[in-house]
Inverse folding.
C-alpha cells in the first residue's frame, strides 16, 4: 500500500522544486549532503528539476563523522553531476563547547544542576551528551547552508522525510529549517523506492540510516523500531485515518507501536509548524491572516 508511481511522483516533485524556487526569483539551490539516502534523493531530484549546474551539495563533517559518510556524499555528487563543497564544522562546535557558561543569578532550576555547592559557572561542553551535541551540529550545519545560500542567492532545500517529520525526529532550526522540502510527504520506504528509480547507489540505499552523531548511532536505534514498522503504522494511522483502538485490537500492529506513534505525532506538532503567536487582533499571522506564500504573486 506504500508503493508509488515513481514516474508520476518524479514529475510532481521536480515541478514543485522548479516552481517554488523560481517564483522567489532564484534559480539555484543548496542542500546538505550527509551521505544518507534522503539527501541523495533530494540531490538527484534537484538536478533533474534545475540542472546539475544549479545545485550545490555541502559536506559538513565533524571530527567524529565517519569516513563512509564523506565518501558517500562525494559519490552522490559524482553520480548526480551536481557541484559540491566541504566545510568542516569541528572548530565551530568545539569553540561552543569550550566556552564557560556563567551563572550570574541562581539558575540551578533551569539547568538541572545537582550540586551542594554554589556554582558560578562551568564549561558548556560538560553539559553535552551524544544527542545534545547532535543538535548543536545540526544547527551549525544549517547556519552554514544559509550563509552559503545568501552568498550565492540560492534556496536551501530540506531533506527530512515524512516518517521523520511525523515523529519529530529532527532538530528544530537545524535539519528542520529550509525553504522548501520535496521529500517531506514520502515515507522512508517511498524514499528508498524513488531512490532506486533515480539510480542512487545501492551502498547508500542499503546502509542503516544514521544521523552520524556518534559511532554506532542509528535512526532505528534511537526510535526503537524499524522504519518498515514505523512506515506501516504511520500510514494506517495518518493516511488511512484508521481508528487506533480498532487497529490495535486487529493484531496487525503492536499496540505499543501505535501508542508510540500517536504520542510522538501529538507531542512533536510544534516542530511541524511556525511558532504560535498570541491572538490579540482580528488578523493574527498564521491564524486569521493565513495566506499561501505566493498569494500576492
Amino acid at each position: 500500500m506504500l508503493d508509488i508511481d515513481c514516474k508520476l511522483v518524479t514529475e510532481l516533485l521536480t515541478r514543485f522544486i522548479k516552481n517554488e524556487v523560481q517564483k522567489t526569483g532564484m534559480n539555484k539551490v543548496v542542500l546538505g549532503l550527509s551521505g544518507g539516502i534522503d539527501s541523495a534523493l533530494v540531490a538527484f531530484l534537484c538536478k533533474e528539476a534545475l540542472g546539475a549546474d544549479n545545485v550545490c551539495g555541502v559536506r559538513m563533517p565533524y571530527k567524529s563523522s565517519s569516513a563512509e559518510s564523506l565518501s558517500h556524499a562525494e559519490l552522490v555528487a559524482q553520480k548526480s553531476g551536481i557541484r559540491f563543497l566541504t566545510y568542516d564544522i569541528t572548530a565551530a562546535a568545539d569553540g561552543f563547547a569550550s566556552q564557560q557558561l556563567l551563572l550570574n543569578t541562581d539558575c540551578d532550576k533551569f539547568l538541572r544542576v545537582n550540586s551542594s555547592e554554589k556554582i558560578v559557572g562551568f564549561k558548556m561542553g560538560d553539559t553535552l551528551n551524544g544527542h545534545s551535541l547532535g543538535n548543536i551540529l545540526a544547527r551549525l550545519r544549517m547556519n552554514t547552508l544559509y550563509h552559503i545560500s545568501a552568498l550565492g542567492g540560492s534556496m536551501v532545500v530540506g531533506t527530512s522525510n515524512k516518517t521523520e517529520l511525523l515523529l519529530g525526529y529532527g532538530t528544530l532550526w537545524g535539519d528542520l529549517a529550509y525553504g522548501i522540502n520535496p521529500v517531506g510527504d514520502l515515507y522512508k520506504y517511498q524514499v528508498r523506492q524513488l531512490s532506486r528509480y533515480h539510480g542512487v547507489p545501492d551502498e547508500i540505499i542499503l546502509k542503516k540510516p544514521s544521523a552520524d552523531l556518534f559511532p554506532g548511532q542509528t535512526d532505528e536505534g534511537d526510535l526503537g523500531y524499524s522504519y518498515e514498522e514505523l512506515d506501516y503504522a504511520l500510514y494506517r494511522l495518518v493516511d488511512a485515518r484508521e481508528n487506533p483502538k480498532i487497529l490495535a485490537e486487529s493484531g496487525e500492529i503492536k499496540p505499543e507501536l501505535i501508542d508510540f506513534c500517536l504520542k510522538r505525532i501529538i507531542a512533536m506538532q510544534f516542530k511541524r509548524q511556525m511558532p504560535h503567536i498570541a491572538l490579540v487582533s482580528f488578523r493574527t499571522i498564521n491564524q486569521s491572516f493565513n495566506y499561501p506564500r505566493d498569494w500576492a504573486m
Remarks:
- The mean pLDDT is 92.
- DSSP finds 13 helices and six strands in the chain.
- The longest helix spans residues 130-152.
- Residues 103 and 110 are 11 Å apart (CA to CA).
